[in-house]
Amino acid sequence: MIMWIMGILLIASFACFVIYAMRGGNLTVGFFILTIVWTLIYFMGVPFGVGESFDVIEETFAQPALTYGPTIIQIICGAWFGRVLVDTGIAASISYRTAKVGEKSPILATIAVALVTCLIFTSAYGVGSAIAIGVILFPILGRLGVPKRVSVPVFTLSIGAAMWINNVMFVQFAAFYQGYESPDGQVIEWGNHYLSFGIPAMIVQMTGVIIFILINSKAIKNGTPYEVGDPADRPTDIPDVPVWTYVLPVVPVALSILFQWDSVPALFLASIIAFLGTGYMKTYKGFVEILNSTAKTAIGDIGSLIIMLLVLRFFQQTAVTVMADFGPALTSIVPNNEFILALAVCILAPLALFRGPLELYGAGSAVIGILMGMGVFNAWFLFAMLVVPSMTCISACVTQSWNMWAVNYNELEPKTFLKNGVPVYWLCSFPIMGLASLLLF
């Protein structure tokens, strides 16, 4: 009887969290409250022999936070390198020169903008970096007459495509699976195994973006030039940086693939090369100033994210502990056929929108906690199950910070953005999930 009561309370609290997340509630607050509620529900059953007592402070709050340190370091280094690309002028120079090459053909220019956006964000991360690049690219696309309903999804989908190999994004997703004991002993970690899937996934999504551009080629050709944003907010000159620095965004990934470098030294080396190549190391004072300013801005950009991820770790630990006792019951309900589950997730991928039950940075965090509590699935399978639809939010949902900024900056109706962006990613999710089944799990 007590198991039924606990199950009903868990489902009810989970449903409340889903509604809260989908209505735009603060996720840090939501995760913390859900952690407390689920812990209290769990202890309801302890006097009745359901589950075992545990040290809440140590096992729920202390250990998850302390073991999360390496992930936080990777996120900080990745955000710092992204800010270095922006503040040294490398990202802006790439953007300007790419648009100039294709300015005689708006279709070619739009494709070039998509590709260069993806290139930059393979290492850059955060709404600050997206704004810095967007205020350059959107006015260029506007002058070429590219309709806003095309230019905005192209920009956000290209950022989303880059996230498949962006280490900062990977370690955030991997945090949801930290501590999970896969039946076959596999763990979620950055390296060639993941990149063998991440790179093809990025290519698939960028192919989808290019097809989207070509489908809208007539509208792009016949488009009327327009102005976007305040001209005073845009850089007026192309930053004078060496052309060879344009390859720096992919240097950290290349070092990981070729030499199996960890992301932290790879990002540090790429940052130093960026400072050196753009002349910021000519004087000690100049180097210290750019070093301090980029670090300060980068950490400021991700400060709230880090706190949210720490609270998320608290909830994840609680969810795994609580759901362990419900594993046998869930196993009889949830299909254990990987093909059926993967296909269902692709079909239902839009449920990730608005922080829904398939979005890890929303109600999906509770879903993955439940699935891990069952203890029967391969770690990489669970990773693909929720990460593939979660990319919808990054690529085409207005709840993602840089997507929201792009929509507002271009004065585009959110429903128009969703109508054009969601189908592209939704269709891409099927081949991407297929790649995951072949290359990842």
Question: Could you please describe the fold and organization of this structure?
Answer:
The chain has one domain. Helix content is 70%, strand content 0%. It has helices spanning 2-22, 27-45, 56-66, 69-87, 90-101, 106-120, 127-143, 148-162, 167-175, 192-215, 217-221, 251-259, 263-277, 284-323, 327-331, 338-347, 364-374, 379-396, 401-409, 414-439. Helix 3 (56-66) runs antiparallel to helix 14 (284-323), helix 4 (69-87) runs antiparallel to helix 14 and helix 7 (127-143) packs parallel to helix 19 (401-409). It is globular and about 70 Å long. The chain crosses the membrane at residues 31-51, 72-95, 107-140, 152-174, 194-215, 243-261, 267-287, 299-319, 339-358, 422-440. Keywords: Membrane, Transmembrane, Transmembrane helix. It comes from Bifidobacterium lemurum. This is Gluconate:proton symporter.
What are the SSEs and their pairings?
Elements: H1 2-22, H2 27-45, H3 56-66, H4 69-87, H5 90-101, H6 106-120, H7 127-143, H8 148-162, H9 167-175, H10 192-215, H11 217-221, H12 251-259, H13 263-277, H14 284-323, H15 327-331, H16 338-347, H17 364-374, H18 379-396, H19 401-409, H20 414-439
The percent range for helix content is over 70%
Morphology call: globular
Q: If helices are DSSP runs of H or I spanning 4 or more residues, what is the number of helices?
A: 20
Q: Approximately how much beta-strand content do the residues carry?
A: under 5%
Terminal CA distance reads: 38 Å
Order of helices and strands: HHHHHHHHHHHHHHHHHHHH
The oligomeric status of these chains comes to single chain
Overall pLDDT level: 85
The structural class is mainly alpha
Question: Biggest sheet, open or closed, and with what strands and sense?
Answer: none
- Mind telling me the C-alpha Rg? 22 Å
The overall strand count is 0
Unreliable segments of 5+ consecutive residues:
none
Domain module tally: 1
